[in-house]
Design brief:
heterodimer, A: about 290 residues, alpha/beta, Rossmann fold, Alpha-Beta Plaits, 2 domains, nine-stranded mixed β-sheet, elongated, B: about 290 residues, two-stranded antiparallel ribbon, about 35% helix, about 25% strand
Chain lengths: ~290, ~290
């Protein structure tokens, strides 16, 4: 089984729109939305949820005021300043380390498991899909990303499909690291701006750090052809294969507003042609 | 006053708003770029950098001579970052959250702390504007401790503008917590709106008043405006799509540099925020709904 993960470093470069378009072109695949923090792929895929599961991960400390003698030991130990003068734990600040719970001489601190999100197995018009929703202000996004990718693989095995198309999160931190480990390749969707280039270079470095082969495409290249060229030159120097360019085309936004892929909205558009070309290059490069 | 600029969805224009607002204020202002995974503010501010500090987080080191392999450290650790395997105790520094529990629980006092490098904080200035950002080390997973380090540079005598990372989980919370106002930047598309709702949820958990900027305001649909009205979130500015702005951005130029008339609009934005914060009109900012 092969897995292509679409990442970008910078947010808003077009990862999800492009991945949705690939979904319309690829045959025999499972879709996976690993951007659990701000998942958007479902807005195009309109999934029919088949299974819904809680995502339980991490704990939060809760102080039982009846047992608490306000000795202050927990406040001294807590490195997150999560316990206030009235010995109430701020659940947002609590890191779930359990140190206060372990040391409380009155056993006044409980430490229940948290439900910090949910995940789904769904059907879409393009095939099965694994996706999730991390609770707002929650932690453990990396763990949920890992879980959702495992579920995606399982779905593929059960359905005898051998391609996983994964929509990754922005950035280079915990959820991104969780989304690229063990994948066949990543496609970096770059934007030809000073920030797009800066962020693309950092995420390319991250892929190299974890030894995942990287490929690149430049979206909205005509906004600044010199920057587009600079991104492609940088990529070639680093053995990152250049898959193609996509022009700035308002058709992407129009398709999104209607909950469609660009091929369903206007398959003859310039943008659609460019994405088709990139997909052909990708399929060749990944031998799919 | 601390204004944190957030969005949920990435690429909606947080950095554009943060940098333009900061330079419009000119003096007695600091910009803290807390998008430490992908900091971009410096590419537009072009600050003169005059300092750098390495930031590390404490992780355990075990003195094998003192350790009796009792396993208490592994028991208390919630992150599987220290385990006893056979005749050795193995710390996994990259999994460690720096809670200090293992060191505290060790009956032999065999554990001390050393630093794991998270990244750097760099600082500089541009005329009267103070600039600080964090850069997460590539390969490092945990950004919140670095974000908190950047925020330690907050000076109460100054106006503080924070450029937050995208998303709605722990890094964003670290960049919003304790702010006086959260300025949300969205684009009027289904993705923008969906992620905006999540960001509003996070702002409300923290109990901070908020307002909205709609960027590329003529490029999608009306849903963001309708949502803002329903939720009682004031729309403080709209920035239409303009190829001139997009191209200037691509070169590292701010709106106020290519269209100086926007400076007045950003100052006006600031005064509106000041007004909301000083009047504490929570219902106007949509906090109580």
């Amino acid at each position: 089984m092969k897995e292509l993960v679409v990442i970008s470093g910078k947010g808003g470069t077009g990862k999800t729109s492009i991945l949705a378009a690939f979904a319309a072109l690829a045959t025999g695949k499972v879709l996976c939305d690993a951007d659990v923090d701000a998942a958007d792929l479902h807005l195009i895929m309109n999934p029919q949820v088949r299974e819904r599961h809680d995502f339980d991960s991490g704990h939060t400390a809760i102080i039982n005021q009846d047992k608490c003698t306000q000795c202050g030991l927990c406040r001294g130990l807590c490195r997150w300043k999560a316990i206030d003068e009235d010995f109430v734990v701020d659940p947002v600040a609590c890191e779930g380390c359990g140190v206060c719970h372990y040391f409380c001489p009155e056993e006044a601190i409980s430490f229940p498991l948290k439900t910090c999100g949910e995940w789904f197995i769904s059907n879409t018009r393009f095939g099965p899909m694994a996706h999730a929703r991390l609770g707002i202000a929650e932690e453990n996004s990396g763990k949920l990303v890992t879980l959702i990718r495992q579920q995606g693989k399982k779905l593929a095995e059960e359905n005898n499909l051998d391609l996983l198309l994964t929509d990754g999160p922005p950035g280079i931190g915990c959820p991104v690291i969780a989304s690229l480990g063990g994948s066949t390749a990543v496609l970096i969707v770059a934007e030809p701006t000073v920030s797009g280039r800066h962020d693309m270079e950092r995420v390319a470095e991250l892929a190299a750090f974890f030894k995942v082969p990287a490929m690149v495409c430049v979206n909205k290249f005509d906004l600044n052809p010199e920057q587009a060229q600079a991104i492609e030159d940088f990529s070639r120097e680093r053995n990152i294969r250049v898959m193609g360019r996509i022009p700035f085309d308002p058709v992407f936004t129009k398709a999104m507003v209607q909950g469609k892929t660009i091929f369903e909205y206007d398959g003859d558009s310039e943008g659609a042609g460019a994405v088709r070309n990139i997909w052909e290059n990708l399929a060749k490069a990944m031998e799919i | 006053m601390i204004i944190s600029i957030a969005s949920g969805k990435g690429g909606t224009g947080k950095t554009t708003v943060a940098t333009n607002l900061a330079v419009s204020l000119e003096s007695n202002v600091q910009l803290l770029d807390c998008d430490v995974e992908e900091p971009n503010g410096h590419l537009f501010i072009h600050p003169t950098m005059d300092g750098v500090r390495t930031v590390s987080t404490p992780v355990p080191e075990v003195d094998a001579g003192k350790c009796t392999l009792c396993g208490k450290c592994g028991e208390i650790c919630q992150y599987k970052a220290i385990v006893v395997i056979g005749e050795t105790v193995l710390p996994f520094h990259e999994l460690c959250h720096s809670c200090g529990g293992c060191m505290e629980v060790c009956p032999e006092k065999a554990i001390t702390e050393v630093g794991r490098e998270l990244g750097v904080v760099e600082f500089g200035y541009r005329n009267g504007l103070e600039f600080v950002h964090g850069r997460l080390r590539v390969g490092e997973a945990m950004s919140p401790p670095l974000i908190r380090k950047v925020r330690e540079y907050t000076q109460s005598r100054m106006q503080t503008i924070i450029d937050a990372p995208p998303g709605t989980s722990c890094p964003v919370i670290a960049a919003m917590k304790g702010a006086d106002f959260v300025l949300l930047v969205t684009e009027p598309t289904p993705f923008g709106l969906h992620d905006l709702k999540l960001a509003v949820g996070a702002v409300r958990i923290l109990g901070i008043p908020c307002g909205l900027i709609i960027n590329r305001s003529d490029m999608g649909d009306d849903q963001a405006r309708i949502y803002a009205q329903e939720e009682g979130i004031p729309v403080l500015m709209e920035i239409p799509f303009d190829r001139l702005i997009a191209e200037a951005y691509s070169r590292g130029q701010m709106i106020v540099e290519v269209m100086p008339e926007w400076k007045e609009k950003f100052l006006n934005l600031y005064h509106q925020i000041e007004h909301i914060v000083s009047h504490g009109r929570k219902d106007e900012a949509g906090l109580l709904r």
